[in-house]
Amino acid sequence: MLINKRAQGWGTDLIIGFIIFILAILFFYNYSFNYSNETEEIIELLSYKGDYIGDSIMSEGTPIDWSEGNVQKIGILTENKINQTKLEEFYNLVQTDYNSTKVIFNTKYDYYFFLTNPMNIGGGQVDGIGKPGVTKDTINATNLLRITRFTIYENKPVTAYIYVFE
Q1: Inside any domain, residue 106
Q2: What is the pLDDT of residues 36-80, one digit of tens each?
């Protein structure tokens, strides 16, 4: 009796294909659930860092009469009004060494601070203070969060905005 060994192994192919299909579905669901969690974590972290930067800028700073050489906490207010000297010190510090301000703010994220009206710094008008090469209209970021604060600048109420972004 002769046995023919030319039969197809379709049962094995079917099982392997089914396993690959199930693994692909599991990978897709796992990735989609974790991706939404990562987004929430990034938003929470940006919000936390943005509030910290906003609270710091909208404070008197440490020490109260800080300068570029002794600053521990950057703040631009005196008696709940923007102090022109501190504002100019902040601007000069960012222009000199932006990365050191990120260290002072304890953040890896970039930031950009501006008011509803341009600021008068060094005899000229400045749109904002923050990451070099960025303006409030040209921020190109993956994730961006805006923090809003109200204050007084040049004896007028103004809105201060802090953009925190990746």
Answers
A1: yes
A2: 667 788 889 999 999 999 999 999 999 999 998 899 999 999 999
Pairing between β-strand 77-78 and β-strand 81-82 as defined by DSSP bridges? antiparallel
d(CA 36, CA 151): 36
In a domain, 33, yes or no: no
Closest CA to 155 of 79, 101, 75, 74: 79
Calculate what percentage of the chain has a pLDDT beyond 70.
Answer: 91
* DSSP calls for 114-162: EEEEEEEETTEEEEEEESTT--TT----SSEEEEEEEEEETTEEEEEEE
Q: How many domains does the chain have?
A: 1
Q: Which tokens sit at 112? A: 């950009």
Per the CB < 8 A criterion, the answer to whether 129 and 114 are in contact is yes
Can you give the residue range of the structural domain that contains 130?
38-165
User: Measuring CA to CA, how many Å separate 53 from each of 68, 88, 156?
Assistant: 17, 17, 23
Instruction: Please compute the mean of the pLDDT values over residues 15-35 and round it to a whole number.
Output: 84
